[in-house]
Description:
Layout: E1 4-9, E2 12-16, H1 23-39, E3 44-49, E4 53-58, H2 72-83, E5 97-104, H3 112-118, H4 123-132, E6 135-140, E7 147-150, E8 165-168, E9 172-176, E10 179-182, E11 187-189, E12 192-196, E13 218-223, H5 226-235
Parallel strand pairs: 5-13
Antiparallel strand pairs: 1-2, 2-4, 3-4, 5-12, 6-7, 6-13, 8-11, 9-10, 9-12
Amino acid sequence: xxxxxxxxxxxxxxxxxxxxxxxxxxxxxxxxxxxxxxxxxxxxxxxxxxxxxxxxxxxxxxxxxxxxxxxxxxxxxxxxxxxxxxxxxxxxxxxxxxxxxxxxxxxxxxxxxxxxxxxxxxxxxxxxxxxxxxxxxxxxxxxxxxxxxxxxxxxxxxxxxxxxxxxxxxxxxxxxxxxxxxxxxxxxxxxxxxxxxxxxxxxxxxxxxxxxxxxxxxxxxxxxxxxxxxxxxxxxx
Length: 237
């Protein structure tokens, strides 16, 4: 599979694949991350995976610059090219499946009926379609722990709202185009909100794993009642 390397900043290299949401591309990006974890080049600060690219941040001070003409970008990309020769040897473990409870509709899902109307469905049909899908977390972004997921049925695809809301509660489950996602914190946003999960997607006090989800996870949604939702919020389940 073809990819290109190019600079994003004076200390960042991007490896880019064809710009589309594709599971094969996603697997290659996961392989690159695992390969970097294994090789641990001394200049590596961190890497950030996205839908069709991975950004690699490096520390110029850790490069072996011999002359004023040595360019950090050239040194890093040369090493990366050599490292990537082993890409096909990296095995990716089976993804974990995370089940997400959602109370659909009501005050927590104010756009459920709009999504249903847009697609010529009933609200219950939208819920059935949404809960019967299996979704891949391709990347986290926008807000800490916000999962961008692929795999949603086009039968419930709905454009973003023309006028974003100023505040969407944490845990809100939304639809935008052919994607579904979950707001991890209260934030402005324009996705169509169809429900809310009582789970906390972002916990800054958990330094080792501040986000509930990570790229590569497989997500399944299931419906809960309003009573179950409030009990979960109050008691942890």
